[in-house]
Amino acid sequence: MKTATFNVEATVAPICKVSAQNLNFGSYTPGTSLDGQSEISGACTNGTQFTVSWSPGLHAGSAGYDNRNMAGTGSGPATSADLLHYQLYSTANHNAVLGDGSDGTITVSSAGIGMNTVLSANMYGQIPDTTANQQAVPGTYSDTITVTVTY
């Protein structure tokens, strides 16, 4: 009789998944600020270090994260009256702007605890009652934020 041995190997690849709920502010009435809340959730393989970052949006002005805007759905070239300024924060008291770590914004970092354990975090938004927002024309406004998980 002859015998042989062989090794059995596998590698667990680091992986993450992420999802985000839409943030619907509802109706903004000039004269008051309007707050909203949404959630981001995800999971990463156990021990995988990750960082979550947020884009400034499609309609941010030259000031980037300081100037997140929703654009109106009207026709023609955009003017300041076709923009509605808003901001995204990590806390309900609006003290930390979510971003990519530049311009005073923050990212969120952690370690995965397994693909079957979803980690969730609230996102807080605000449409401030500024002079520019008070000049917005009636209509529907929107923007798109990209959430990136780097691991």
UniProtKB/TrEMBL annotation:
Keyword Transcription found: no
Signal sequence bounds: none
Alphabetized UniProt keyword annotations: Capsid protein, Virion
Limits of the Spore coat protein U/FanG domain: 3-148
Amino-acid biosynthesis keyword on record: no
Domain of life: Bacteria
InterPro entries: Spore_coat_component, Spore_coat_U/FanG
PANTHER family for the chain: PROTEIN U-RELATED
Protein name: Spore coat protein U domain-containing protein
